[in-house]
Amino acid sequence: MARSDNNSLSTLFALTAQVPKVEFITNDLIDRTIAKARESSRRRMNYNLHSDEADPVNRLLNAMQRGTFVPVHRHLSPALSESCVVLRGRVGVIIYDDCGQVMERRLVGVGADACGFDIEAGIWHGLVVLEDDTVLFEVKQGPYAPLSAENIAPWSPDAQDEEAVAEFVKALEQSFE
């Protein structure tokens, strides 16, 4: 880049009073996020790439270990879509109808024919982690909205019921064997 171009960029950044954020998703970043997931009682850890939960687009790494529980859920209120690409490992993705019947079951990740998925708002879905140290790159519409009771499927076990959760996760894992 020519010196005058560099000065022009510096002037532009000074005028906007904001330096654009660039963050690379490196193996080191992924490894650090995995290490935190291993230590977490939930067996997963997010690393947010977005600056604020109120941002119009939330982008994050989600590092997960086998046995973590993701309740069957949808994003209906508010209506949000969700896209994921598996960077490491494998997950099983399950799509359900409104009555809890499995509509589709798909292996996603390294060595599978699908490396990611995109789910529109309102679709019941869940996933099961099939390999330790699985990492997803997720993109969701913001602002962040925690799952409300109406967005958690009535057939999904209560997260506080450890025995029911363990049975549910085991059954999902077995359905992908």
Beta-strand fraction estimate: 25-35%
Low-confidence spans: pLDDT under 50, at least 5 residues?
none
Q: Give the distance, in angstroms, between the N- and C-terminal Cα atoms.
A: 53 Å
Query: From the helix content, strand content and strand pairing, which structural class follows?
Result: alpha+beta
The CATH topology assignment is Jelly Rolls
User: Shape from CA axes?
Assistant: globular
The spatial strand order of the largest sheet comes to 1-2-8-3-6
* Top CATH class: Mainly Beta
Series of H and E elements: HHEEEEEEEEH
- The CATH architecture name reads Sandwich
Q: Roughly how much helix do the residues carry, as a percent range? A: 10-25%
Q: What is the number of helices?
A: 3
DSSP, total strands? 8
Overview of the molecule:
- The strands form two sheets. Strands 1-2-8-3-6 form a five-stranded antiparallel sheet, with helices on one face. A three-stranded antiparallel sheet has the order 5-4-7, covered by helices on one side.
- It has helices at residues 3-16, 27-39, 162-174; strands at residues 44-48, 57-64, 82-88, 90-96, 102-109, 116-119, 124-129, 134-141.
- It is globular and about 50 Å long.
- It has a single domain, classed as Jelly Rolls (Sandwich).
- A hairpin with a 5-residue loop joins strand 4 and strand 5.
- With 177 residues, the chain is α+β, with helices and mostly antiparallel strands.
- The chain is built from three helices and eight strands, in the order ααββββββββα.
Spell out the key features of this protein.
three-stranded antiparallel sheet, alpha+beta, single chain, five-stranded antiparallel sheet
